[in-house]
Fold each of these.
Amino acid sequence: MSGGLPAEGRYGPAPPQRRRLTVAERREVGSYVVIAADDPDGPCPAPGQFYMLALADRWGGGVDERPYLPRAISVMNANEGRLEFMLEDVGPGSGELCSAAPGEGLLVLGPLGRGFRAREDCEPVVCAGGIGVAPMVMLARMLGEGAHYALGFRDGAHAEVSRLIPGAQVATDDGSMGHRGNAVELLAGMVEELPDAEVYACGPPAMLGAVRELCLERGVGSQLALESGMACGFGACYGCVVPMAAGGYSRLCVDGPVLDGGLLDDEWQVAYG
Amino acid sequence: MSQVEFCGISLRHPVVNGSGTFDLMAAVQAFGEAIRERFPFAAFVSKTITLEPRAGNPPPRLYETPAGMINSIGLPGPGVAGYLEHDLPELARLGVPLFTNVMGSSADEVGELFDRVDTEAQIAAIELNVSCPNVKTGLDIGSDPGELEGLLGAVRPRLSKPLIVKLTPNVTDVAEIARAAESAGADAVSLVNTLRAWAPHPERPAEPWLGAVRGGLSGPAIRPVALSQVEAVASATGLPVVGMGGISRSEHARQFLDAGATLVAVGTESFRDPLAAASIAAALS
């Protein structure tokens, strides 16, 4: 049961040229910002894939003369050529993207990387923390009610976004919505009941570390959507690497960003400084 | 601008890539065959190839700066055997001249690399990365004219192909280094490599952010420095120059050509836009 997820985590290659789109909509969902842009010429992305984004007419020249590089942002939704991205203002790049107004030019390259993959005869369980819920909105549309959802947020304002995934169980750090605690605690309860679970996870490194350990312990599969600063998004800069159990490094932009938890080196979080 | 001659090699325009800034196989994975059909560079410069495979530096490897970035990638690569067996046949299908960039930490290592690549008909020229210490003397080969002359004197006879020496900007007088390269048999020089740089940890600024502590700065931030060094080297030697450092538009490429470069290389801008070099080349013509 993994819906129409592509086996390779994507439907096909991206066009090699950066495309200039126009921001069609900006809305706030709780503490997050969602921007939408129509990309009629781009291929359909798969859940877990990402785009390199930059504002066409104001990029650079902000605080400390940044941003300079585009930002790797996972796609939240793609519907009839309209792409949606969920953002949180955590720095000069995401801050500029959060302030994008309808009508502004948006440079995009993508869809890039390999997203979540289908796994036959498994019960899909989705676990996300904070802004990590973004790719799960699209994933949930494909998995539907046949999947289980554990979402965690710091507080109720951030958790408001959970309404984009109906039927999800929610945890908040402060207990203002749902379970007081975190998403991994909810996940542990679900996995207990589902020996054939395949866990799809996205969130901060500490959360993904806990998901990975839980899944290894219980002997269930995990697909972790990881994040890293990236200069290019298409394998050129070798900047976005994580250490692998088999030795050496994998580039998140071409081998990921979704990687099997079991293939990561136990020290994979070193990539986060 | 039409056809350009460089070390006896004909290029369809003067724009190439900086070594280590474009990975053809990964780009084909991301973009399919379209990237071959629209390949933006007039010649392809390989990433640095060493004798043995290298995994590269521990992450984090990147840091954004004002108008640029610092990298400490650490030259990951398949080693010369893997490069010749797997990469070269794929690169040869591009149909553009191939420049293979190599690095070794002693004359013996560089000599062995030269022997391995010199017999490959598909390689048009060799670029030698000298931004590394000589394991025997501990001196940076590219920072010391005597070291560089000694190395080139020992290895140049083992190479029949044109030799480009890639110069580091982390020196007091780059023209002196270029003259040493010229007198010891280089056919061309390319510059600048990245400027040595430090990235403070965003939350603990007294600590380094990069896994390998130091890195190299690239992007528009270094363009004025690069232009100055290209002009100095072009004036001081008779060698053709591949100029690079923060070129992101055709006007910048024109500035390097006006400063005396024969070719220009695009590096960091290709990260932001994979086809940037194609736009630059088109605007130059």
Amino acid sequence: MGILSRRDFLAATAGAMAASTLHLGGASAATPKRGGTLVATWGGFEPQALFVPPGGGSSPYFTSTKVIERLLKLTVDLKFEPVLATEVTPAEDFRSYRIKLRENVTWHDGEPFTSDDVVFNALEYWKPISGGVSLNALSGAEALDKHTVVLKFNAPVPEFFLKSVLAGKSGLVIPKHIYAGKNILTNPINNAPIGTGPFRVKEWVRGSHVEYLRNEKYWDPALPYVDRLVIRWWRDPASRSAAFEAGQLDLATFNPIPAPDIPRLTGSKKFVAETKGYSNSAWVTTVEFNNRRDIVKKREVRHALMHAIDRQFIAETVFFGRAAPSTGAIHASNALFFSKDVPDYPFDARKAAKMLDAAGYPVKGGSRFSVSVVSAGWFEENVKIGQYVKQALEDVDVTVNLTIPDRATSLKRIYTDYDYDIAISNNSGSIELVPSTTQYYTTDGIVKGAAFRNATGFSDAKVDDIVAQVAVETDPKKRVQLVHAFNKLVSTEAPMLPMVDLEPVTIARADVRNHSTTADFMGESWSDVWLDR
Amino acid sequence: MQRIVARRLTQIIPLVLGVIVLNFTLIQMAPGSLFDVMTAEQQVTNPEMLEKLRHLYGVDQPTYIQLFKYIWSVVTLDFGFSYRQNAPVLDVIMQQLPATVILMLAAIAIALLVGVTAGVLASVKVNTIWDNLISLGAVFFFAAPSFWLGIMMTVLFAVKLGWLPVGGMRSIGVEQNVLEATVDVMKHMLLPATALGLFYAATYARVMRASMLEIFRLDFVRTARAKGLSRTRVVIAHVLRNALLPVVTLLGLQLGTVLGGSVVIEAVFSWPGIGSLLFDSVMSRNYPMVLGVLVLGSVIVAVANASVDLIYMRLDPRIRAR
């Protein structure tokens, strides 16, 4: 099928890091061709607005990143490459960073891009709105000249951490002359964003598509390769398959079509399926134990229940093989921090039953105890996983009261009301673990009403201490060691652990070249994607 | 006549008020809120920012205040602001409602054309192979879910034969004059309108057949034939007109369900109507948008029902006399 598994992906990534060049699924050594219209979509719905300043989820991130750029980008082999910044250099004490900006860059309305824009973004947009706790340590930003900025911090900031922020979801650079003095969240321009990117918005037909045209004044005159980019929305995965087969769709990210259709499409050799390009937005399905509840508060009970769940079954049956059982708290595609040296909980129902006996919960009247399981209904797969987990726990004589609420209700029950014993949820983490992964385990991650953080109520001084060290450790090797210690500790405590690592897939026509080249391809500008027609 | 129209239109006011109060209450009773959804999507973790957003979205006020404020704004023809879409509610709806209305009208036209023709044919050829085939077809299209029918039609006509587009409402990035654009929209609309309309066509065919057969047995039809009128003239001028009354009744009753059915069909065919907007708004508890869609939808259905009443009077003057 031409698809790499997660293990193959890791091997390929490691190999690629050693080699000087990469031949990615969509990458090509051939000379790129100019022109054409690229029609793309993704496996989700239309965005609520083309640009949502605080984030807004994958859909507005997809549509805004074709227009609004960042200072850096992260390639699949974990190298930071320049976009709007040509250099990002730390001071010796890592408490300030000097950023040299690209010259001769203009916004889509013709205004020049300068260091004032970056200072405005750092202080008015990234720190208070998009970056959240990531930029807590940012204490100031200063423009030294038109193209040089210094970011100042009140603590040492690791280089990989800062560059990840600048290349990440929260590092989009918006124009000061448009947003200054106005409410960034409700500015009408968010539905027709202006940026420095390779494409500018031509029109958005709500419910149908957004059409972008080539930015003729882009700072790299050779880019973008395609003249027109159209992002369309089909709510129904089967309709996306039909659109591919009818030749009306070129490229689609994040599991756009039903899994059983993938071998049929790729078997024709007209399409390719690619799993690269997701490591900086790596999705997992998690099991979360509410530490406010007496039974699942006990570590040995959590371990037993983990053993009762066959995660291989979930990966193969629910996800049709497009997922793999997780190892520890870190997604396996994270080539920088992933480690296998953590406690694991392989499926063993007999062992689970014995452990529950030993924990003081023997079977009485046909049941050991009763738990409330909330499976967040925002993904179709969670419905099936919830039903499977209910059966699996009942196999070890645990009575399960399963509910699979819709998105709004799931958010309220899990993250506001903490109304569950066991929650089945999801999250996407970046390669940099602070805070996207660590906030599920640290005490400061407990914020009532704030979703996708520590909802379990787990609090451990050792974990907090290690994460605090990771946040300021500037030696990359020591940082990796600290992360491994963190991973081992939280995998042992298991207040919340990924059950399966999802392996999202991109489907593309075979003549679409140079896609899936970055660590978060969906959120890149796609300036270098070209059509071999 | 004018009095009847005025009375019908006046009835819309309590209807709209009822729609607002009922749906506002239902949304408020549902667990979770727009605030929960938006702060989750935006990954807001700062307590100060959470409070600021709570105030911005107006969810820090008591529910009854929110309701009265909303009713007052609707009275002043202001449907509010959707923070989720970052745009006025009416602007967003008016961008997408026309597509739904066009699809509804096309589906109803197909349903009436196919259903009435098939019903007439079946009644004229009663107990023949034609009658049996039409009955079989009606049962099939009545039983087949419209989304399944839509996918099957897409596979056949768009993927295998390549005659029609897979989805959308028009070709993107193509310069067209008015005529070309109209033809283009009709090509895009053919599959979704047919998939939506065939279900209703099946109903109309069955009702039309039964109604025609009943009218055929009445005295005035026998009289018309005894006067020497041709069979075709009797069917078209006398039987068809009277037999249409139950179909018109059904049409009036089903306008709301056609609007509901278009939500599913829009998803299959990527039709840029209000279906996806309504679905997303319900899921995100975006009550200004949900109420806006439902209020405008109920106005459309009420106006259409008033039009059906007028058609009724045109078909049967006895109704006007009463």
